[in-house]
Each structure stands twice: as structure tokens, then as C-alpha cells.
Amino acid sequence: MYNYSCSAAAVERCRAMLPSADHTASAPTSTLSKVWEFILSGRGGPGQRLVHQADWLASLTMGSGSQISGTDYHNALKLGYDIEKLCWPEWLLAEEQVANLLPQHVVAPGTTLGHVGAESSRWLGLPESCRVLAGTTDSIAAFLAAGTTQVGEAVTSLGSTMAIKMRSLVRVEDAAFGVYSHRLGGNPLQWLVGGASNTGGVVLRKFFTDKALKQLSDEIDAEADSGLDYYPLPSPGQRFPVCDSALQPRLEPRPASDAQFLHGILEGMARIEAAGYGKLAELGAGDVCRVVTAGGGAKNAKWRQIRQRLIGVQVQSADWTEAACGSALLALRGSGLLG
Question: pTM for this structure?
Fold first, then answer.
């Protein structure tokens, strides 16, 4: 899973390869760390090849005879792909055990890979003339759905976890804070700078039903401070805006009022989000000027008001809040959507 932290041995082998300590792939949750966990488990033998979920689904759609040989450069980022030079770096290819597992080709998201296969055509109900395009990551799909256009605009995806992405002219990476940049495209070249926190809806699910969330949210005064200093995490460990696998959740003391408890949790999440945008500015990505919200959390108006108060800029819901809409737009417009 995206938030799975690898063993110390796998992370050590991963970091020993890297050209710098702040490289995106140095995180315990990176794809490259997971490759080493796979190798150290003894499963990385001849004929094995790494595929991301998007690669596997594309292969299924094209049919059982298609080869899974490529991926897109968004998914390949945390595997160590050089997104400036658009190639596998020499330091990665020099490690034969890893190099043998790498996807053979890396293309821009939205690039045509092939067409729907005959068997897939039958069970999907799609014509064989339908093209299959290279995908992207879930949070970038949510970003594309939100429809931002200006540098400094950002998208916060509020799902089970919280991911933020901001348009910037500067590529910023610092693994110590879980900050990394995806290549977006355009002229001048833009970057999606951000990170993904372990806070989010998964914490709310531990305490509240959907019905209770709606009822209790109505009781919250979003312009007032809850008086609670929470750091909402589902379990120990945080990825962004600090990367600390041992960071402990803080959800006490719990007040008698469930509405106040929810207020404190929502504020705690908003502080993490605000700290995230603050960290991006501190590292040189620029200041956020507007935040668009995607994901299920976009429906909660009181949470939006709390976030707007703590971040200090306009916060609004995206016209399309589902990441699937970004995937559909990518399928419609191809790689041109990135520029």
C-alpha cells in the first residue's frame, strides 16, 4: 500500500543507492524501498518485473497477450526516475538486482499505450478501437479534476488521508519533510509540489458515522477555536509535513461534547494542512494563493471554513471532487492536459 513503511534493512539498502539523502525515493514508503523489501524477501528472481497498479490495469484492459513493459513518469517518481532528464539515472541502473525489475519504458501520463483487447472488449463493453492511455497517481488525478490554472493554486485531496499539490515554477524535494515534486509540464515548465499526510478521513471513521459527522458539524462554530491541541493520526507515523515513522497521534483529552471533540479533530487536521503549505513556502516553492478541495472531505462546509481560517487563503470545493474525473479528463485530452 502507498503508506506501507518498509523494514529498516530495505530502507537502508535503498538509501545506500541514492545520490543525496533528501531524494524522494529515500522515504520508508517509497517504491524503491518496496523494491528492496521484495528483493530481500527472496522473490526478485529472473522474469520478475515491477508494475504499478495503473500499469497492471492497463495491461488487463489491452488483453492477456499484452506485455506489461512500461509505466508513466508520475508513478515512476518514487522509484527513482529522473523527471527532469526523463530517463532512468545511472546510479539506479548500476544496481543489477533493481535494474532487472524496472519498467522498460516510461512515458508521459496520457500517452496512448494501445487499444482495448478482444476479451476485454467483451467484458467491459468497450469497442476494440478504444485507446488505452498511460495513467497517473490518484492525488494527481484529483488535482487534474479540480481545474487549477495559475501558479500558487493548490489542491488538497481529503480522502482517507490528506494529500496536497501546489503549482510551482520551482521543483522542491526534501525527504526529511516528505516533500516532493511531480513534473506537470507546460512552457515554462511547472511542477506539482506537495506531500501526503497520514491524517484524514480514516481518523474520523474511527469515531463517527457519516450521519454523526453531518449532525455534529452543524453544531460547530467554525470561526471559534476549539481549545484543543490535537494531532490526528490513525496510528503512529507521519509522512508529511514531517516524515517520522514514530510520531504519535494526539487525541486527548476528549471533552464530554462530541461536537467539540470533532471540532478539535478538524482543527488539528487543518493545522497539519496549513503547516504543509507553510513548509512548501519555506523550502522555496512559493506561497499558496488559493486552495481547491477534492475528495469526500470537500462536502463538509464547516471543515472548509476552519481550514480557510487557519491557512489564511480562499478555500473552495472543486467542481469535480472525485479523482476518477481527473482520470477521465486525462483519457479525453491525453498528455496535453498536463501542460
Answer: 0.85
